[in-house]
Amino acid sequence: MSPSGTIMSYSFPMQEKPALRPSVAVGEALRGVARDILAEARAAIEDSTKSDADAVHDFRRAMKRWRALLRLVEPFLGEEARRLRDEARDLAHALTGARNAQSALDALADLEKHGLALSARSVAGLRQRIDGIREAAETTLNADMRLRLGSALDQAAIVVERWPLHTLTFDDIADQLTRFYRDARRMIPTHWPDTDAEELHELRKRVVIHRYQIDIIEPLWPRFVKMWSGEAQRLRDRLGKHQDMLMLASLTGPHQPLARWRSRLATAIAERRAAHVTGAARIAARIFVEKPNALRRRLDAMWTVGR
Question: Does 262 lie in the same domain as 195?
Fold first, then answer.
């Protein structure tokens, strides 16, 4: 902030992805990250070459990044950050549409890759039925929806420029990164095979937050953070595939569209669920091996060495 009270702005060079680095004030670096996320969301809905499905996917991904950042800065911004986070959740939810059916299609593809004991004709029939569900639920990015999303992004961009972040230090952010790491670590099951599906879903949400938050410290140790972020993404994917299996299973329940395939899919679904849980357990053991206090010391060292 300047002596006159005006918030000073830093523009990252084109070749630099906005992130925390010792050469830039912490608050301005976070403002740059916020601008980058909002630009990503805007590009998703304004790119005329994207299909509606791709645009929706990319916009929802940007909203996940946005909400993870807002959680990080919420203690310093208060109710405003919470309001923006709730709004981002609502926007993403409005675009959920065919997501459940797409999850079922992804699960079916997963089963096929691992020896699903169904004829090609049966698999084609299954896929056609799920495709019909997906198409019926698909969200269309019509002019009104694009206008609604664009307006929300415009308002968020205005608010970002007013964020009072000039007093923030790296210690403030490191404490927050450690807090969300701790939250995710606490969700790690003691005995994975017996863990309730809802608990695994909650763990996945914590992993998503952690994965996007650690990206903002990549310049402090690029190779290490890319590996760390990559492993977090792998854990997210494993838990997501487990959730996909649950979605497919739900469509085979009584009076559901795929009920007549239930007996032929149940065993294969159970086996793949177990495989994804086992895989997730291995990845989580590596990512969350450090205790939170040890991670906090690591963050301090990364910042100090980077100066």
Answer: yes
Residues 268, 47: Cα–Cα separation, whole Å: 40
Query: Do 52 and 180 share a structural domain?
Result: no
Q: What is the CATH number of the domain that holds 33?
A: 1.20.120
Residues 269-289: tens digit of each pLDDT: 999 999 999 999 999 999 999
Kindly report the length of the chain.
307
* Residue 259 CA from chain centroid, whole number: 31
In a domain, 4, yes or no: no
- Return the structure tokens found at 287: 């990512």
Q: What is the pTM of this model?
A: 0.91
Distances (CA, A) of 291 to 29, 178, 287: 27, 10, 11
| Rounded Cα–Cα distance for residues 156 and 87 (Å) | 10
Secondary structure (DSSP) of 42-76: HHHHH-TTS-HHHHHHHHHHHHHHHHHHHHHHHHH
Asked if 69 and 40 count as a contact pair (C-beta separation under 8 A), the reply is: no
**For residue 14, is it within any domain?**
no
pLDDT tens, residue by residue, 9-65 = 556 555 678 999 999 999 999 999 999 999 999 999 999 898 888 898 899 999 999
* Cα–Cα distance for residue pair 183/292, rounded to 1 Å: 10
Of 99, 294, 288, nearest in space to 192 by CA? 288
- Which of these, 80, 83, 85, 73, lies nearest to 167 by C-alpha position? 73
Q: Which residue has the tokens 């939810």?
A: 93
Burial class (CB in 10 A: 0-12, 13-18, 19+), 184: buried
